[in-house]
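Below is a filled-in request sheet from our internal design queue. Each sheet records the structural input a requester submitted and the sequence that came back. We keep these sheets so that new team members can see what a complete request looks like end to end.

REQUESTER: design group, bay 2
PRIORITY: normal
MODE: inverse folding
CHAIN LENGTH: 259
BACKBONE (tokenized):
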């Protein structure tokens, strides 16, 4: 039986988590917070994703489209900058769900950030960037943007196991890197890969690195390695899916806090 189609799911989710008001695309958020990731970053957690990852720390919000409240790009920008200013952070981001759903909202937010001294880290699964080269063309015009493409496993089989999406969609994550590179963005500087390794082994990780190097040799050298953090609600989700991580971390001492 084939897995879910993340592009069809995108259309469903987008109708739930975005809305046009007075010519502006609003997006659902469920919190704004500060944290010490990346050395200090202000985060807006958005509702809705086009994958159903079985280890997701925000699954209570990313799975569903009726949570949270709507923010305009300007109001989200102001909240992010307020946190960053208070704690003297250099970085801003959206997290929780998939930020490229509702691209117009993201683009307008980036336009505000472009006029500041902050950098925005786009954490994305890359699927929509791989499917639509116009997305990468649009994003390539921003100079205060760093794109982190987060791979869900090291092989198509791992991708399907971890996300519920059909294995055939895994290649779109690599295509995202190819599209970004084709637009003149610099590997490891303007964009870089991350990968969930809690369910991988040395053999599949080696295959993953080889595939990255075929796009650009530097990409295999700047991988951000991700591992499951065993928050109580994450352990609950793992149990439901009968999934056991090979490597995972206890959340005590994890450097993050909520505003």
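RETURNED SEQUENCE:
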């Amino acid at each position: 039986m084939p897995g879910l189609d993340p592009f069809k799911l995108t259309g469903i989710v987008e109708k739930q988590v975005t809305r046009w008001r007075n010519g502006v695309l609003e997006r659902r958020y469920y919190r704004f917070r500060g944290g010490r990731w990346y050395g200090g970053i202000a985060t807006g957690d958005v509702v809705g994703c086009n994958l159903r990852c079985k280890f997701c720390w925000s699954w209570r919000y990313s799975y569903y489209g009726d949570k949270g409240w709507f923010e305009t790009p300007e109001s989200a920008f102001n909240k992010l900058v307020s946190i960053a200013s208070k704690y003297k952070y250099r970085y801003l981001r959206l997290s929780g769900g998939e930020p490229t759903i509702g691209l117009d909202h993201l683009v307008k937010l980036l336009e505000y950030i472009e006029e500041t001294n902050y950098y925005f880290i786009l954490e994305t699964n890359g699927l929509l960037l791989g499917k639509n080269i116009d997305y990468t063309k649009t994003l390539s015009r921003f100079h205060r943007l760093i794109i982190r493409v987060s791979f869900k496993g090291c092989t198509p089989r791992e991708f399907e196991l971890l996300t519920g999406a059909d294995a055939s969609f895994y290649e779109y994550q690599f295509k995202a890197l190819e599209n970004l590179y084709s637009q003149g963005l610099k590997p490891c500087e303007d964009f870089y890969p991350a990968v969930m390794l809690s369910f991988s082994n040395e053999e599949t990780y080696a295959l993953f690195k080889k595939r990255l190097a075929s796009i650009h040799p530097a990409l295999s050298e700047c991988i951000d390695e991700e591992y499951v953090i065993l928050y109580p609600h994450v352990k609950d989700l793992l149990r439901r899916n009968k999934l056991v991580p090979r490597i995972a971390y206890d959340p005590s001492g994890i450097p993050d806090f909520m505003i």
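SHEET NOTES:
- The first strand starts at residue 18 and ends at 21.
- The domain at 6-244 is CATH 3.20.20.70 (TIM Barrel).
FILED BY: M.R.
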